[in-house]
């Protein structure tokens, strides 16, 4: 009976060797999967970091654009103020010219009156 069991035992040993080989393969694949999982987690972390940096850059760009918009609005307001003040100055210049002309005319009239008074006194 031992002779009849010999092929079965040999077959059993072959199966055990095959199982050990497959167990080793499974363990190597499990370790490789764990390594891939760790790599994936690292990639996710880097992606989150880059996304965070990208969001910060977008925020900085939007802040910068908002500041530029505010400056452009301020520049426009100042230009309008300059135009308004130029118009005021132009109006004041014209008023000063008109007053000067009036004073000159009044001065000429006064001079004529003075000359007439002197002439009347002299006669």
Give a description of the structure.
- The protein has 123 residues and is mainly α.
- It contains one helix and no strands.
- It has one helix at residues 2-122.
| Overall mean pLDDT | 93
Largest sheet: none
Q: How many strand units?
A: 0
Strand and helix order: H
The total of helices stands at 1
Estimated helix fraction: over 70%
Span of the ends, CA to CA: 179 Å
- Structural class assignment: mainly alpha
Large-scale geometry: rod-shaped
Radius of gyration: 52 Å
Give the strand content.
under 5%
Summarize the structure.
The chain is mostly helical and 123 residues long.
Secondary-structure blueprint of this entry?
Layout: H1 2-122
Keywords, separated by commas or semicolons:
123 residues, 1 helix, 98% helix, rod-shaped
């Amino acid at each position: 009976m031992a002779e009849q069991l010999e092929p079965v035992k040999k077959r059993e040993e072959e199966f055990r060797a095959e199982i050990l080989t497959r167990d080793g393969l499974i363990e190597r694949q499990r370790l490789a999967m764990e390594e891939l999982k760790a790599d994936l987690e690292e990639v996710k972390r880097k992606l989150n970091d880059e996304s965070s940096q990208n969001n910060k850059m977008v925020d900085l760009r939007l802040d910068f654009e908002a500041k530029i918009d505010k400056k452009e609005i301020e520049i426009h307001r100042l230009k309008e103020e300059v135009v308004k003040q130029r118009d005021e100055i132009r109006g004041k210049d014209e008023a000063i010219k008109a007053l000067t002309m009036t004073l000159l005319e009044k001065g000429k009239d006064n001079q004529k009156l003075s000359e007439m008074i002197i002439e009347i006194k002299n006669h």
